[in-house]
Design a protein that fits this description.
- The termini are far apart.
- By secondary structure, this protein is of the alpha/beta class.
- Strand 4, helix 6 and strand 5 form a beta-alpha-beta unit.
- It has a single domain, classed as SGNH hydrolase (Rossmann fold, 3-Layer(aba) Sandwich), CATH 3.40.50.
- The chain is built from 8 helices and 5 strands; from the N terminus they run E-H-H-E-H-E-H-H-E-H-E-H-H.
- The radius of gyration is 16 Å and the shape is globular.
């Protein structure tokens, strides 16, 4: 049985995530960095302790309790690389990436453009012995016949492909959550962020838990079998 997870978010989480930029949310500096968007912020979780970041933090605390955690947020594909650059201004032992949801929803971003963005992020954080875990796009309620569903599936494949090129571990959030409607929040779910209830889009507590468990499995594997060949970091 797991111990309760400590909350890992700002004491007073800023009212609406969409209004923030990466520089607005720089948690205390630490050797573990989370790079993500509103999901990393904790959207649709009932309490800060139920967010996937808090759950993963508890998982890491069981192994390295003295390590500090930091989060760097981006709510626009144009600032995703900036968040990664800010994260790597300090030495990191572990970097956990949750990026792609906003690119899926922005049809102005082509698959080739997303590949370039994501490759730049990985090049920025990979190297010097840093352990990196890249999460694919989680399913957020899209019907299987829609173009958004197809984009999310394609962008998840791109993430996995670019990660494989760099020997980066992948947390396959897409496969873990795909078409599991019970993992999506509803207006009946109470949340600690925003308007105070679910939105039929972001994951509920069960969804955050599945996402956390998927990251944890990937982290465990990469800790047991670290990449054989280091890469030179290219963070421009």
């Amino acid at each position: 049985m797991r111990c309760p997870r400590p909350a890992f978010l700002l004491p007073a989480v800023l009212a609406m995530a969409v209004a923030l930029t990466p520089k607005d949310i720089a948690f205390h500096e630490g050797s573990v960095a989370f790079i993500g968007d509103s999901l990393t912020l904790g959207a649709a979780a009932s309490t800060p302790s139920e967010t996937f970041v808090s759950l993963v933090t508890g998982f890491l605390d069981e192994r390295s309790p003295k390590e500090q955690r930091s989060a760097f947020l981006s709510f626009d594909p144009a600032t995703d690389l900036t968040a990664a650059q800010q994260a790597m201004q300090h030495n990191r032992r572990i970097v956990i990436i949750e990026i792609g949801i906003h690119a899926v929803g922005d049809e102005a971003i082509s698959p080739d453009q997303f590949r370039q963005i994501y490759a730049s992020i990985l090049d920025c954080v990979t190297g010097d012995g840093t352990i990196v875990v890249a999460g694919t796009v989680p399913w957020l309620g899209w019907a299987a016949v829609t173009s958004t569903y197809e984009r999310a599936d394609l962008f998840s494949q791109i993430i996995a492909q670019e990660a494989a090129k760099r020997q980066v571990a992948v947390a396959d959030l897409w496969s873990a959550t795909k078409l599991r409607l019970n993992l999506i929040s509803t207006p009946q779910d109470q949340t600690f962020l925003g308007v105070g209830h679910g939105d039929n889009f972001h994951p509920n507590d069960a969804g955050h838990a599945v996402i956390a468990q998927t990251y944890e499995r990937a982290i465990t594997l990469v800790l047991e079998h670290p990449p054989k060949r280091p890469y030179d970091r290219r963070c421009h």
